[in-house]
Structure formats: structure tokens, C-alpha cells
Amino acid sequence: MAFFTSKAFSVFITFLAFYGAQRLYLRFKYFWLNPVLLAILGLMAFLRLTGLRYEDYFQGGQIISFFLGPAVVALGVPLYLQMEEIRKRGRAIGVSIGVAAVVGVLSAAGTAALLGASGPVVASLAPKSVTTPIAMGIAEKIGGIPPLTAAIVIATGILGAVIGPGVLRLCGVRQPVAFGLAMGAASHGIGTARAVEEGEAQGAAGGLAICLNGIATAVVTPLLMKLVMLWVRHP
Predict the structure, then answer these.
(1) What percent of the chain has pLDDT above 70?
(2) What angle do CA 187, 189, 192 make, to 5 degrees?
(3) What whole-number distance in Å separates Cα of residue 53 and Cα of residue 59?
């Protein structure tokens, strides 16, 4: 029994779940079979069926979480290789990220506030489109609930990775840099991983969007939250 609550087992079962989900996705190439989504659902079912406590499982999960930082830094490699292409579009990228940061905050926080959500819940939703460590930091500073923010960020990333490419193609967005920027700005790392499947330029633009949108969202969120709450109180 001790082995099943060990860090080694948690790491093993996590990699096994993702490997199986990845194989299934590669086999059928159906957009709803997103590997991250399937792995999460598989692990939830495993914990439920075995009765293994999440706290025991997460002891090993923390080891995997440690590699999130290096994985994000590694996105700098395709970004460097595509630097000339991105430099040509510097102004357009800057404007796009600014708009993405504002829309990302208002689309969630504004809607939640209008529907009567409490202040902490609204604050938790605001940084939904940036990577988890930045989002949790923003939520903590503006009175949100960091664990709730983490769950929402993951859900946002999965949803963006699943439906994002189809929505962008439907809207006629096919230029590689624009495609990658949209995926990275809307659904951070998980969306960028999906953008990488489309091509190197898309992946590089997605990695750039993660960094720039994280900074922009951290800057604009406190001001936008004040405007949202003021608007709701005095429509």
C-alpha cells in the first residue's frame, strides 16, 4: 500500500495516463481527444475508483509541476528560430497582445460580475488566459482565490486547445504568426502545445504570446477589475 501513495507511483501513473491519451489522440486525430483533457479525466477516474487521496497523489504531482518552468523556458528555442519573422510584425503583435489582455480579463470577469458572482469569484476568473503561476499571483493580489484560478486556467487552456483551431479557421485566421498568437494569448501553454502541431512559426508565436500576455494581463487586470466592479454597482 505504501507504494501506491509514494511519489514514484504518482509520477508513473501520470505519465502512463498522458502516454495513453497521446497515443489515442495520434491514432484518431479527433479534436475532442485532447491528450491533456483525456489524461485529467483518466486520473480523476483512477483516483475515484481506487480511493487514493488527491493529497497523496499530489506528492508526486509536485515533481512534475517542477518541470513546468523549464518547459515554458524551452519555448524560447522556436521563438529564437523564428525571430526574424516575428520582428517584421512587431507592431501588430504588440497591439494584438494588448487587445488580448483586455478581452481576456473582461470576457470572464465582466460576464461573471453581470451574472451576480461574488467579488472573489470575479477576481479569480479575471486572469484565466495566462499561464498558471502568473494567474495565481494576479488572483492573490486582486482578492481572488488562487486554487480556483488554477482550475479555471487549466479548463481555459484545454477548451482553447480543443476548439481554438477550428474557431480560428472558421474566422479565416490562417496566417501562422496570427494563429499562434491567438492560441497562446487565449489558452497559454496548453493552447501553444496545440499550435506547435500546426508548425514551428505557430509554436513560436504562441510561446511569445504566453510571455507578453502574462505581463500585459498583470498590468491591466487591477485597473480593469476596478472598472468592472464600478460598472456593475452603477450601471
Answers:
(1) 96
(2) 75
(3) 10
Treating both helix axes as pointing N-terminal to C-terminal, what angle do 176-198 and 146-170 enclose, rounded to 10 degrees?
A: 110
From the CB of residue 147, how many other CB atoms can be counted at a distance below 10 Å?
Answer: 11
**Radius of gyration over every alpha carbon of the chain, rounded to an integer in angstroms:** 19
Query: Would you state the pLDDT for residue 37?
Result: 87
CB atoms within 10 A of CB 231: 12
Domain boundaries in the chain? 3-66, 74-233
Of 77, 85, 109, 93, nearest in space to 185 by CA: 93
- How many angstroms separate the CA atoms of 61 and 161, rounded? 22
pLDDT at 4 over 70: no
| CA angle centred on 169, ends 105 and 108, rounded to 5° | 15
CA 183 to chain centre: 9
The Cα–Cα gap between 201 and 89 comes to 13
DSSP one-letter code for 145: -
Q: Residue 177 has which C-alpha cell?
A: 504568426
**What distance in Å separates the CA atoms of residue 150 and residue 232, rounded to the nearest whole number?**
25
Nearest to 141 by CA among 218, 69, 211: 218
For residues 104 and 185, the answer to whether their CB atoms sit within 8 Å is yes
Residue 110 gets which letter from DSSP? I
Give the predicted TM-score (pTM) of the model: 0.81
The Cα 210–Cα 158 span in angstroms is 15
